[in-house]
Fold:
Amino acid sequence: MGGEAREVARFTASPGWFPLAWSADGRYLLFPRKMSPDDTKRNLWRVSADGGTPEKLDLEIVRIDAISPHPDGKRIAFGGSME
Structure:
C-alpha cells in the first residue's frame, strides 16, 4: 500500500512458487518452508514485517497451496494436503 519495497527475510526456496500471506493485523508475512531439502513436509512460518528472524509455527503439512488468515487473527484457512 505505497512506500518503498524492503527486504524482511532472505532464504533459499525450492523451485517453483510458494504462497505468501499477510497476517490479519498486517504485522507478519506467513509462508510455508521445509526444515531441510530432504523433508517431504513443510511447516508454516512467519516473519515480522519489520524484519528479523523467521519463526516456525505449530503446523506441519505436506503441501500448502494457499494461505488465508481470518480477520479475527486467531484462525488461518489454507489449501493443501496432509499426505
The CA atoms of residues 32 and 63 lie 8 Å apart. The beta strands are 21-22, 28-33, 42-48, 55-61, 63-69, 76-81. The chain has no helices and six strands. The longest strand covers residues 42-48.
